[in-house]
Model the fold of this input.
Amino acid sequence: MKDDSIRKLDKAKLPAWDEIPLGWALLSEGSDDFKTGGWRSQHPVLDPEKCTSCLFCWIYCPDSAIRVKDGKMAGFDESLCKGCGICSTECPQGAIKMAEGAGALKEGE
Ligand code: SF4
Ligand code: SF4
Done:
């Protein structure tokens, strides 16, 4: 049987886009306010010998979890890193490997 329920909707009774109640709003840029570290099932491990502090990982990390000190890559923020692995994929030096488990985010593990 063909479902034509969509066609039966009375478009005149539907709210316009600006009449629909607001469901959710982000009031700050980025995700600093969300502690996404609890989502982690994998964790990044930095090899400081390979790292050139190009900061590509800082650019690509969606959760502001790359720490920078004096313009150099300084590890990961435990409370923000959700273990997505993007930093590992994007690092041009292969300096970040992903390991199983939430892990403690320390250098050279
Ligand atoms: S992308 Fe790789 S080489 Fe560049 S700062 Fe991050 S870990 Fe270091
Ligand atoms: S795995 Fe890498 S890119 Fe993903 S949240 Fe953690 S530090 Fe950021």
